[in-house]
Specification:
This protein is mainly alpha-helical. The protein has one domain: dinb family like domain (Four Helix Bundle (Hemerythrin (Met), subunit A), Up-down Bundle). It has 6 helices and 2 strands; from the N terminus they run ααααββαα. The chain has a two-stranded antiparallel ribbon with strand order 1-2. Helix 1 packs antiparallel against helix 3. The longest helix has 25 residues. The protein is globular, with a radius of gyration of 16 Å.
Length: 158
Amino acid sequence: MIGPLKDLLSHQAWADATFFYAWGASGALGDLDLRTRTEHMLSTTEAFLQVLKGDTVVMPNRPLPDFQALKARCEAGHQVLGALGRGLDPASLAKPIRIPWFPDPPCVIPVSDALLQVCLHSQHHRGQCMTRLKAIGATPKTVDYILWLWKQKPEPRW
């Protein structure tokens, strides 16, 4: 499980950087739908990172960030995820954690499932964002996992 999970985390960084490149080239940096959905995607990742680090989850009430702030948060989150991924071992992946926003009954899952959820949640919303780019006349990018593999697992280009 360690190898594929590390690959999914690496793919996610590349796919997110590719999305931000496409969004940046779109001329729609202020698009409310893209900003709202991307902020949700990043806030969720940040909440999972807080849980994974053992911190109290704090969801700040802040104004909707602009494109540059969202991109900076995304890149910073991937720095943390990358470091976390490099430290994975079977014992740390099996460690149970509680997801506090699902209180009753308590949601207790292993770290491996939490990291998988981070990847899958981002994939879902990134796909919605690419669809939005296409709807507003921009050029979305295909960021399928198989393309990342075919391209020899490139590093993200922020």
